[in-house]
Amino acid sequence: MELRLYDTLSREKRAFTPLDPTLVRMYVCGPTVYDFAHIGNARPVIVFDVLFRLLRHLYGAEHVKYVRNITDVDDKINDRAARDYPGLPLNEAIRKVTEQTERQFHDDVDALGCLRPTVEPRATEHIDEMRAIIEKLIAGGFAYVEQDHVLFSPGAMNAANGGLPRYGTLANRSLDEMIAGARVDVAPYKRDATDFVLWKPSKPGEPSWPSPGGISTQGRPGWHIECSAMSWKHLGERFDIHGGGIDLVFPHHENEVAQSCCAFHTPRMAETWMHNGFLQVEGEKMSKSLGNFVTIRELLATDKFGGRSWPGAVLRLTMLKTHYRSPIDWTAHALQESLDNIASWNDAVTPHGLSNDAGSYPPPDEVIAPLADDLNFSRAIAEMHQWAKAARAGDYLAAKKLAGAADFLGLQRSSWDQSLQEFMFKTAVDDEFRNKIDGMLEARAAARASKNWAESDRIRDELAAMGVVLKDGKDADGKPVTTWEIAR
Ligand code: AMP
Ligand code: ZN
């Protein structure tokens, strides 16, 4: 079956042909480990997990290598370590933060039914490769040393003749546009506004390593270089697929291409660039200040969102209902619908007495075909609804197809029964949740009474992010009252 994938670089859906069919190679940018992953971070993890499963199906499990890195050097990690472990030396505190966050991340994405990648390299274990690439770039005239920093020069890349892509091609922006758009307060160590950091000095106490480029002080890598180094180490100079969220196209992926192609004198880094669309929550960009920021863990294990916790399979199915390149609006309503779907699928397959072991039934072609067409999840799920209907009417083959499809998509069929007992029959809104909402409504009424509209709006938004909608009205005596319900 032909696999077709949309490539961000050529901006078209193309037939996918691996460079080496005996080893299909995919790299996806992974998490920066300083805190619980949010539900937006789960999107690339789930999307590329389905692609990993599809590649394994098409080429054989042993012929696919999937690398997803762990970024364990970053200012946010340093800040978190200093805040959480003020008594410890910074390096020890950093190790605690990164190890703990990595464990949490694994627990969370395991619960979402994701397979572990073939390799999960950590940035700090690839400093030698980063230095080696930086030395190649300096030697080739693409990078320079200034005030203990090493900078990459997109201008030098575009001035070089032959065999290299032009800087800006992936993001579809010209260097001139970027120069025109650059801010005026350019760092003093940059020759050009568009130059970016490959290596920089470490502050005292921060993690540091011997520097490249003949710099005598210790330093640390910039962000972009780590992915060029880890993909090189584990997949080679050129590989098949590079993925991540759409926010990474510029500057991160553009800069990865620049580094890798200039270091290895190749016209491409990855043959296919794939980017998932962004996730927003209840119609708004997810942000801590809006109060609608929600972690995978909170969804799995607390009632913060929609008044209940949600099984991993429900979160995963919800993620798969939207095409991976489209934006997704994450709502309590959509989660409830997925829970209902799983309940109905469970009802459909249970009477047929199928084995619960994942992989007992092969994935039907009717599901592989839409997935092979640039991961058309919703067409695959539409097929599943048809089989559920037939299975409910007694069709055993349809039940097997539904089971095979669910297993292939990682929907954790063996957990359905148990999830349903735990989740379906739990009253949707428990007392603790009610009390919390009542408290917030009182605070909002007080804010309105003192005409503090900003605070009143903030509380309404916070409730909306919990899946609760408010209705302001008047009681029989004309006094204002507010009622609420769970968004449906
Ligand atoms: P970060 O840890 O922020 O570098 O993000 C890790 C991965 O999650 C990257 O592939 C991001 O593109 C992706 N990502 C972050 N936020 C969102 C979001 N709201 N929706 C979809 N993907 C996201
Ligand atoms: Zn990356």
Topology overview:
Layout: E1 4-7, E2 12-15, E3 24-28, H1 39-59, E4 64-68, H2 75-84, H3 90-111, H4 127-139, E5 143-146, E6 149-152, H5 154-159, H6 175-181, E7 196-201, E8 219-221, H7 223-235, E9 239-245, H8 249-264, E10 270-276, E11 279-281, H9 296-301, H10 312-320, E12 328-330, H11 332-349, H12 365-372, H13 377-392, H14 396-408, H15 416-424, H16 431-449, H17 453-465, E13 468-474, E14 480-486
Parallel strand pairs: 3-4, 3-9, 9-10, 11-12
Antiparallel strand pairs: 1-2, 5-6, 6-7, 7-8, 13-14
Helix pairs in contact: 2-3, 4-7, 4-8, 7-8, 10-11, 11-13, 11-15, 12-13, 13-14, 16-17
Adenosine monophosphate (AMP) binds next to helix 1 and strand 9.
| CATH classification, class level of the largest domain | Alpha Beta
Small-molecule components bound? adenosine monophosphate, zinc ion
| Number of helical regions | 17
**Main sheet, how many strands, which sense, barrel?**
4 strands, parallel
| Helical content class | 40-55%
* Overall pLDDT metric: 93
Q: Please report the total strand number as a whole number.
A: 14
Give the C-alpha Rg. Answer: 25 Å
Q: Please state the overall shape, judged from the principal axes of the Cα atoms.
A: globular
The CATH architecture of the largest domain can be named as 3-Layer(aba) Sandwich
Give the CATH superfamily of the largest domain: HUPs
Find the CATH topology of the largest domain. Rossmann fold
